[in-house]
Amino acid sequence: MAVLGVRPRASRREVITNFWTQFHALNKKNLRLLILRHWISTLIQATLLPVLLLALTLNINNFGPSSQIYGVGTPRPIQSMRDNIGSQSLVFVRPPHVGFDVDTVIQVRPHD
What we know:
By secondary structure, the chain is mostly helical. The protein has a domain at 12-62 and 83-105. It has 4 helices and no strands. The protein is flat, with a radius of gyration of 32 Å. The N and C termini lie far apart (84 Å).
């Protein structure tokens, strides 16, 4: 018995079918509008603009002076781990469920 003004609940399959039908109709409408009405702007946005942006990004280092080949700062040698840590201990914590290859990377050393 149907109550006036109340629709019966749609099944899950009907909801999914309705969603995909509406999704397909909206996509078809939008693509038709883009391609048929605004084909020049679509061509510019989809092909020319990305290519120009990529070319600009790849050649941005050629716009400035070419004397800086290492970046902004001056190059400095990398300090060793012993110089950075000093007399402190460096501890690696091995989680219990990691693979066997972790043991080959972390060499267990007895306490001094």
